[in-house]
Design brief:
alpha+beta; 9-stranded mixed β-sheet; disordered N terminus; T6SS_TssK
Length: about 425
């Protein structure tokens, strides 16, 4: 297959139905792999259709009644696919055709960053606000982040039966799938590195090297605890596990960069490469899960901006962020004081430091919010302990915050969706 391939369709070659565009089923992307794409008209005015292939629509050709797709990335997955967008019920003829060629079973996969809900009513699947694919394969290629939500089977009577693969909320199901897919690989890599570090400690390494080794081990123990919590059905999430793995990876990189080149170094580098590959892959998946977290909005009062009740999950998290949107350009975080509602008057009047906030230019979840969102990490310390004690937070206001929207955010805090 060439690096880029093009297919052109005139408008009379496609079928418009209920505001949807259905490309001909003979559209051939990769040899015997036939693909039909369904999209809303609005999707034709720019980049669209990513997931099993990155497809870009040419705007100018679109205006002339011709659609040209440039395939940027084709994924070699067996089976026939139908991509669905926004409130689309599967048409019977499409489903019948797919079932006839796929051993009587079809799986619904999701490629979403913001899953809402899947409705399965009267043998109809309705998809709201996110991308999904029907496939004859229960699993997809490893380079694609997707997971199945329900299986569609053809009954002897010729009717279709829809069976949800999970009776639990979407997040719980996703966490379970993530865990089953990666737990053995994570354990193997972490234990291997842990054993190497412990062996190094027995060889009388330098004092600075000793401290770095202990830091690596500390992160490995955190990963162990996180995985144990997930295994027992606790609150730890894939995103939190990824963050621990990422910190572990950075510490291990620093550790091996600080040693002379020996045969042992090459062994360490091999472990580091395995860990790097895992972190890259899990990072791609983790960014989807983190979007499920919920925002807590501050309310503007007469004197202060307040958040009167903070959930315990956030108070117990070490990943809490203050988000400020629609700021004026001359805003400086040092111009405001942040503390618990009870402490803020004292902090303000006596010009005490208040809650420590660190500006984060890039985080795992930066892509969720608009480019004008300023993200500040809430650091541990005395004032944060007071916030934990009182369960609330407040800040002084400035003219720059007059039209701003302010939120407290933690990837660990999620509002569960309704069950399938």
């Amino acid at each position: 297959m060439n690096e880029f391939q093009y297919w052109e369709f005139s408008m009379h070659q496609v079928n418009w139905k209920n505001g949807q565009l259905l490309l001909p089923q003979h559209f051939n992307m990769m040899g015997d792999h036939h693909v039909a794409l369904i999209a809303q008209r609005s999707k034709l005015q720019g980049e669209a259709f990513y997931g099993f292939a990155d497809l870009v629509i040419d705007r100018d050709l679109c205006a002339m009644g011709v659609i040209r797709f440039k395939v940027l990335k084709a994924i070699d997955v067996c089976g026939q696919y139908y991509e669905l967008h926004n409130n689309l019920s599967i048409e019977e003829c499409l489903l019948d055709e797919l079932l006839k060629t796929s051993n009587k079973e079809v799986y619904l996969h999701v490629f979403s960053a913001k899953p809402k809900e899947i409705s399965v009513v009267d043998h109809q699947i309705e998809i709201k606000s996110y991308k999904a694919v029907l496939s004859s394969a229960p699993t997809m290629d490893g380079s694609v982040s997707s997971f199945p939500f329900c299986k569609i089977s053809m009954l002897p009577s010729g009717k279709c039966e829809l069976n949800a693969l999970a009776k639990t909320p979407i997040l719980s199901f996703y966490n379970s799938l993530f865990w089953e897919s990666y737990k053995d690989q994570i354990k193997s890599i972490v234990l291997s590195i842990e054993a190497r570090i412990k062996n190094d400690l027995l060889n009388h390494i330098s004092a600075s090297k000793y401290v770095m080794a202990q830091t690596v081990l500390m992160h490995s123990y955190r990963i162990d605890n996180c995985m144990m919590t997930m295994e027992q059905g606790g609150r730890s999430s894939p995103d939190y596990l990824f963050q621990q793995l990422y910190d572990f990876y950075l510490c291990f990189c620093n550790y091996i960069d600080d040693e002379p080149i020996t045969e042992l170094t090459y062994q360490h580098n091999t472990c580091c490469k395995c860990l790097n590959d895992l972190v890259e892959h899990l990072g791609f998946i983790a960014k989807y899960e983190v979007k499920e977290a919920s925002l807590l909005a501050f309310n503007k009062g007469m004197r202060y901006i307040e958040l009167k009740e903070i959930p315990e999950i956030i108070l117990g998290s070490n990943r809490v962020y203050l988000l400020i949107q629609e700021l004026t350009k001359d805003f400086n975080i040092d111009d405001i004081k942040v503390a618990s509602s009870e402490r803020l008057p004292v902090v303000h009047q006596k010009a005490l430091p208040g809650l420590q906030l660190t500006h984060e230019k890039e985080t795992l979840f930066s892509h969720i919010f608009d480019a004008n969102t300023q993200i500040y990490k809430v650091e541990a310390g005395r004032e944060w302990d007071n916030v934990i004690h009182y369960g609330n937070m407040a800040m002084t206001t400035t003219p720059q915050l007059e039209n701003a929207k302010i939120f407290l955010y933690s990837p660990d805090y999620k509002v569960e969706r309704s069950a399938l």
